[in-house]
């Protein structure tokens, strides 16, 4: 994962998954606003479990790349069977993929064997996957002090939102906002991973005063001075803020478009001549009754 492709590929997977969930949750809520109930994954017309199968395929590819395809000897161990320091991050990344693979596999089994408990248990396993992801990124073996560490620190905030909203979804399945924020956070994870890939491993995009350096078997970004490092981290924070604003604008605009497209529509129609006549007669009748009542009150006042 410590490369451009290693960040863009999983980032694209999170991006597509988040977009898929965001689209479906908004559509489901727009069609049934009063009876909306969240679901952990969405079936498709041709294959009920297509989303989960794709997650299993993507995570299997990720595990293979980290442990068998990426390493120079096509296996991550030293000749004595131990894990070398430069392959620790490979095991960390593959462990994240394994947990998401477990989530998808159990989601399929629960849907087939125990539909009654499928929602809560599936959400629980998804929460474990996000918790595992947060744990491993927090104690990541890669650089914590440099630019890459700052990117990972900000990523942890987004993962925490995914974890929190997934747990909240177990107790509040009818809350659209919980599902909406969860979908946005997954979408945001994908966007931020893609941004990381390009900003860290594209030399022309690295902050002034910093450079790519080959260290412990993979490339890392080092800075020539503390001032350059501080500036680079500040730029990462600004980039994260701008990305947050952009995703907020996009998500709300996307909601407005889909709500208008799939939401309940009020149908306006013109009255025909018979209906217009009936309305006119009713208005004249009401006016006559009102005038009659006024005369009665006037007579009563005179008698007094």
TrEMBL record:
Membrane topology: Multi-pass membrane protein
InterPro entries: DUF716
Primary localization: membrane
Record bears the keyword Transferase: no
Keywords in alphabetical order: Membrane, Transmembrane, Transmembrane helix
Membrane-traversing stretches: 6-23, 52-71, 91-110, 117-139, 151-172, 184-202, 239-258
GO cellular component term, pick one: membrane
Subcellular localization: Membrane
Record bears the keyword Ubl conjugation: no
Family: Belongs to the TMEM45 family.
Protein name: F-box/WD-40 repeat-containing protein
Organism name: Hibiscus syriacus
